[in-house]
Amino acid sequence: MHETAPRRRYRSIFLSDVHLGTKGCRSDFLVDFLKRVECERLYLVGDIVDGWRLRRSWYWDADHDEAIRLVLRMARHGTEIVYIPGNHDEIFRDWLGLEVAGVRLQREAVHEAADGRRFLVIHGDEFDGVIRYAKLLAHLGDWAYDWALTLNRWFNAARRRLGYPYWSLSQWLKRQVKEAVKAIDRFEAALATEAKRRGLDGVICGHIHHAEMRTVSGVLYMNDGDWVESCTALVEHADGRFELIDWARENRLSFARAPRRAPAALPAA
After folding, report:
1. What sign does the dihedral 35-37-42-45 (CA atoms) show?
2. What pLDDT score was predicted for residue 4?
3. pLDDT tens per residue, range 110-120
4. Which residue of 92, 174, 211, 241 has the lowest C-beta tally within 10 Å?
5. DSSP-assigned beta bridge partners for residue 82
6. Helices 62-76 and 27-35 meet at what angle, rounded to 10?
7. CA pair distance 204, 181, nearest whole angstrom
8. Which segments of 149-231 are extended strands (E)?
9. CB atoms < 10 A from the CB of 63, how many?
10. DSSP sequence for 210-245
11. pTM value?
12. Cα–Cα distance between 234 and 70 in angstroms, integer?
């Protein structure tokens, strides 16, 4: 993955829904991304650690450790880091206002872009009716989602064995469900309305694992996606221009340019 590529310099980077502590977390892609970027400000927009899952079973690998180490290294080297806890890492909401190892914990933030535009930065679970009013149902949905991610891992293990790059089966399945599409539309409208109510130019959020950048109700809605299905980040350039980076897609393109490896031979029966 991009072994010799130069570092990319951004004014700000927004990451969310990493879900460290789950087998579905693509911490390997995240580590590669963090090694290739520099920024003045890093916003961790919730669900970085999956406390729900870690309470049920412990999973933590070397890439999880490396991702945390790289974030802390960025803080030591002068990057301003703001951590906005989400619903899966809500335990950190008890520590709002504290700064730990250069990482400041906040409920939300207002980010001023280089061109003067102002954006509400918030995880977004407060605007999800299922999370807010029916937590048990949310946990049941999380269990079903975990099964989809397990299927996704098996599917991609078979693709790797055949010499094909990563492709998110779970994300494709989610896009096929019409009700999920309607829920995303309602979520986007609710966040955009809140930003507009506050007199801001837009909103930056996570939560629904659906990277997007579009105008909703006259303001700019931006969702930075996730590092479970899509492996995406929202970045701000020096001139205030925003861009969604799809790290999994970039790796697929790199794979496509590289010579295809022959599939591994199956053992004799």
Report:
1. negative
2. 62
3. 999 999 999 99
4. 241
5. 43, 104
6. 30
7. 19
8. 202-205, 212-216, 219-223
9. 17
10. --EEEEETTEEEEE---SSSS-EEEEE-TTS-EEEE
11. 0.78
12. 18
